[in-house]
Specification:
Layout (H helix, E strand, L loop, with lengths): L4 H14 L5 E6 L5 E9 L7 E10 L4 E10 L5 E11 L11
Antiparallel strand pairs: 1-2, 2-3, 3-4, 4-5
Length: 101
């Protein structure tokens, strides 16, 4: 965590600027030392609609790209559709040695 901490902090800072509160943070790591940071904000469906929305800021070390997503979720079918994907910038992967390379 010490190595990836600065990237996690940077992604959270970007999300604070781009996403409404409350926000949740998820960090995934894999055995090959790749990692993913995802910060999201969800909106529940309204009274007259069955659709909820999730906005997210995500970084994956393999791509070194910070991306923003808007996802529509159908609460009747549990289906989700990505409505928007934007690239917000890049952050170099701080983990220099990957396992299996």
């Amino acid at each position: 965590m010490e190595t990836i901490g600065p990237v996690v902090d940077e992604v959270i800072d970007i999300a604070r600027q781009e996403l409404d509160a409350p926000r949740s943070v998820k960090i995934k790591t894999w055995e090959d030392r790749e990692f993913l940071v995802r910060v999201k904000h969800g909106s529940a469906p309204g009274v007259n609609t069955r659709y909820g929305y999730e906005t997210a800021i995500q970084y994956h070390s393999d791509r070194e790209t910070v991306e923003a997503f808007l996802i529509e979720e159908d609460t009747h079918t549990d289906e989700a559709e990505r409505l928007l994907k934007m690239e917000l910038g890049t952050i170099p992967d701080p983990v220099r040695e990957k396992i299996g390379e």
